[in-house]
Structure formats: C-alpha cells, structure tokens
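Appendix B. Chain record.
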Amino acid sequence: MFDNGTISSSPFLIQPPSESTNMFIDIRTSLFATYLFLTGDSGALSNWSYLNNPTLVILIVLFSLFIVIYLMNLLIGLLSDAIGKNNNRVSYLMQKTQILAEIELFYMLPFQRRWKEWFPEIIYYYANLYDIQKEVKAMMDRDEWNTDAFPELKNDLLKILHIKTDKQNSDN
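Structure tokens predicted for this chain:
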C-alpha cells in the first residue's frame, strides 16, 4: 500500500531500507556485518537474492578466497618467525663449519694443515654446566653414552658433572 492509499498490483512487499533490514546503511553496522560474515553468519546478506545479484555472489566468493589466503599467509609468517628464531644460531654454526672445511680442504697447502698453532690436537670449548648435565643424561637415557670409546675421559667428566651411573651406585 502506497502513502496515497492505493494498493500495488505487484505481489512483492516493498520496504525502504532501514537499520533493521540493511546492515550496510551505516559504517559501524557494515563493519559488524563483515565481522559476522567472517565468522560464517551470512544473515546480513539474506535480504538479497543470489540469483538476481551475481555481483553479490562474486563478492562473497572473492571475500572468502582472500580471507583464507590472508589467514594462511599470516599463519605461515608467524610460524616462520618462530622457527627462524630457533634456527638462526644453528644455521650460522653449520654454515661456519662448512666454510671452514672448504677453506681447509681447497685453499690450504698440506704443510699449513700440519701447523699445530692453527690446528691444535685439543680444542677447548666453554659450555654451561647445566646444559652439559642435561645432554649427558639424555645420552644415557638413549643408550648413546655407554660405548667403549674414551672410558677414562667419560668417567672423569661424570665425576666433574656429579652424575652417578648405575655402576657407580653399585660400587658405593
């Protein structure tokens, strides 16, 4: 029924857009409708027929694709940052060893490789006591420690680290 009192011959009910029928009338409600659509609620778009509005269908599909691609890229970026922080030191040391091995093999003469000042028989290395204890215990748990190589050195190291083995426990 029109404002002048006449009745329309069309079977459709025509209602002017308002805040209750169209969430895209105001910027705040349109952002909320986009958020709802992001969570899977397409109720804000239920006022339009998908068959009569192919542009709407294209926009919905593009929105879905771009959001999935964006979220996947965000996840990949966060994971790569987390992995990169852990692997920086390890990759640096691995690259350094490869470069040093190449230099020793290809750029040094045989008499230079025999110099004791450059290649000592014993290399001193500083390591944290707690880290060594943890690694030795892990090697013992994995049965990698109980080999016949360097038995005196291993026993001395166990005494320094204050780690008792099953053999030491049975002797006491």
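Further analysis of this model is presented in Appendix C.
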